[in-house]
Design brief:
It contains 7 helices and 8 strands. It is of the alpha+beta class and 215 residues long.
């Protein structure tokens, strides 16, 4: 029994956002254009590993880019190492740049909840710690109302047996993560975490969410 448990533990240890190796034919959505576009809107979410969040939002029609970074804490110079050590109060987040005439904030919020388990506290799967907590950041009362309405709808649906743990907090500031984290899955499709967690989660999201998805 012990050798089996050790073997299983070793597999679990591979499934964390900062681990490292088999290729996938899945087309990974990338940012459409680098740099801001006049008139585009922004939304900010945290839902576990930001590599996962990035491709979730970039797969949607109307989203130009989803940038990995940090939000929700007090450190004005966060780094991956400091955030991972729980020193900053920040969560791994994505800033989503989108055309509100093509995709609504309501759809982004629906995608946000559909691509995670919002009942988990300070974790997503094997990614454990406050930096992996679920947070929906709102920029105005209209956005807050949309988030609250979706939480209420999900709670009444019976989909989850546990209470939704997503934090709903006002947006303050977003700090982009280091360059090597951007478009990470597309650049490292063979990485162990990507293969074991990110790709399967993304496939499940695309199968269960209505979109609208890019071709």
């Amino acid at each position: 029994m012990k050798p089996i448990l050790i073997f299983l533990a070793s597999l679990v240890s591979l499934s964390s956002c900062a681990q490292s190796t088999n290729k996938t034919p899945l087309k990974i959505p990338l940012a459409e254009v680098a740099g801001p576009v006049k008139g585009e809107a922004m939304a900010t979410f945290a839902q576990g590993c930001f590599w996962h969040s990035e491709i979730v939002f970039q797969s949607l029609v109307g989203v130009r880019d989803a940038v990995s970074g940090y939000a929700g804490g007090n450190d004005i110079a966060p780094s991956y190492e400091k955030v991972s050590n729980g020193e900053t109060g920040h969560a791994e987040s994505v800033q989503v740049y989108y055309d509100s005439t093509i995709i609504s904030y309501k759809t982004l919020v629906a995608a946000f909840f559909a691509s995670q388990d919002p009942t988990q506290v300070n974790r997503q799967g094997n990614d454990v710690g406050p930096q992996y907590r679920s947070v929906a950041f709102y920029r105005n009362e209209s956005e807050k109302d949309i988030i609250d309405a979706e939480i209420k709808r999900l709670a009444a649906s019976g989909i989850y047996t546990k209470k939704i743990a997503t934090q709903v907090v006002p947006f303050t500031k977003f700090y982009p993560a280091e360059p090597y984290h951007q478009e990470y899955i597309a650049k490292h499709p063979s990485q162990s975490y990507v293969q074991a967690v990110s790709i399967p989660d993304f496939i499940h999201f695309k199968a269960s969410f209505k979109g609208p998805f890019k071709n």
